[in-house]
Amino acid sequence: MATHDLGELGTTRPPVDMTFQWFGETIRVSPTASDLGLIDFLEMASTIDTRDKVSAMVATRNYLHGQIDERDWPRVLELAVQHNQQFGDLLSLARSIVEAVAVFPTGRLSDSSDGQPSTNPRSRDAYSSAVATAMAASKGRPDVKMIIWEAHKARMAREAQAA
């Protein structure tokens, strides 16, 4: 039985080189930060009971940890404690980072696009299926659905910009 090699399909990307200001200090974003970290976060979040605040906070902290440079992570935790950060504050921080990494501006995109971005149809179908699955898995979790939707919009904006 013969196989057909599709060739190299991966896209090489440089390490993320971003920082942000948080409580007057410069914090480095992880060089490997991406919107892919949402997958594990969403999978975990979809299994957490909405009344289980501790598990939700742990999942958020773990997700945020993956978005912050390891050298700055201890300081981020110190600043969070010093400034009485709450679950929503950390979730907002993680969201801001993933939006920046995915090249998605905060706020809505204009409707003046030049049509759909050009991407591999098979890749888009697999991605759309993953988004639909994640949305279905987050039934009863509007907070998780909002994160999925924002990540989806970020990816679409990034693909449109690359086209």
Give the total of beta strands: 2
Per DSSP, the total helix count is 6
Averaged pLDDT, please?
A: 77
Helix and strand pattern: EEHHHHHH
- Segments where pLDDT lies below 50 for 5+ residues? 104-126
Strand order of the largest sheet: 1-2
Alpha-carbon Rg, integer: 17 Å
Largest sheet: 2 strands, antiparallel
Give the helix proportion (percent range).
40-55%
The structural class is mainly alpha
Q: How many domains would you count in the coordinates?
A: 1
Intertermini distance: 37 Å
Strand content range: under 5%
Instruction: Tell me, briefly, the overall form.
Output: globular
Structure explained in plain terms:
With 163 residues, the protein is mainly α. The protein has one domain. The chain has helices at residues 37-47, 53-67, 73-82, 87-101, 121-137, 142-162; strands at 19-22, 25-28. Strands 1-2 form a two-stranded antiparallel sheet. A hairpin with a 2-residue loop joins strand 1 and strand 2 (25-28). Helix 1 packs antiparallel against helix 2 and helix 2 (53-67) packs parallel to helix 4 (87-101). The longest helix has 21 residues, at 142-162. It is globular and about 60 Å long. Residues 104-126 have low confidence and may be disordered.
Summarize the structure.
With 163 residues, the protein is mostly helical. It has six helices and two strands.
Secondary-structure blueprint:
Layout: E1 19-22, E2 25-28, H1 37-47, H2 53-67, H3 73-82, H4 87-101, H5 121-137, H6 142-162
Antiparallel strand pairs: 1-2
Helix pairs in contact: 1-2, 1-6, 2-4
